[in-house]
Design brief:
three-stranded antiparallel β-sheet; single chain
């Protein structure tokens, strides 16, 4: 029995060292060397201060900023500790009421016509940092008025911050709300 036990213990210790220590250290080293920003939570900095992450949305509510899509997290919108979708079905009165409230808020902000789906519906995680370019364009007049800036200036910022599909086919056109709002704050009147 000792002849079988000793190789089993030695093999367990070797595999533990390789898979539990060497491999994680090697992968961490590669990640920090080649993909430092991603390995460190894709932090967005303003000077020496972390203002957010390019991967997690923030709840901008003032008229001087572009609004993100609604968030299903609770108790607060864009609560990263409570990431989830609403899981409400199309016949849910709670969903209908929430969508109506979003439509009413957008119309009070000056929106007219058909609204993009992401303007009134939550994402699967409730933390989506991006909005569609249609939703961004819908907000240009409101933001321009609130900031007393020409709509053309705001429109140019939206265009400059619009991300397009890679090779024209991979991904969707979208705008990172945090990046766009930071660009807005940098505009001088």
């Amino acid at each position: 029995m000792l002849a079988q036990l000793r190789p089993a213990i030695v093999l367990t210790l070797i595999l533990t060292a390789v898979t539990g220590l060497l491999y994680p250290l090697a992968i961490t080293g590669v990640g920090q060397t080649l993909f430092s920003a991603q390995a460190n939570s894709s932090q967005v900095m303003r000077g020496d201060v972390v203002v957010g992450s390019s991967l997690i949305g923030q709840n901008f509510t003032k008229d001087i900023y572009f609004w993100p899509r609604p968030s299903a997290t609770s108790p607060d919108a864009y609560n990263a500790g409570s990431s989830s979708g609403s899981n409400l079905g199309p016949t849910s009165q709670v969903l209908v009421d929430r969508v109506k409230a979003s439509v009413d808020a957008l119309k009070a902000g000056g929106a007219t016509g058909l609204l993009p789906a992401d303007a009134v519906t939550t994402s699967a995680s409730g933390l989506d940092p991006d909005i569609s370019s249609d939703y961004a364009k819908l907000q240009i007049e409101r933001v321009a008025k609130a900031r007393a800036l020409p709509a053309e200036t705001i429109s140019a910022l939206v265009a400059a911050n619009t991300r397009h599909p890679v090779l024209g086919i991979f991904g969707e056109t979208g705008v990172n709300v945090l990046a766009l709002n930071m660009a807005l704050d940098d505009v001088k009147k």
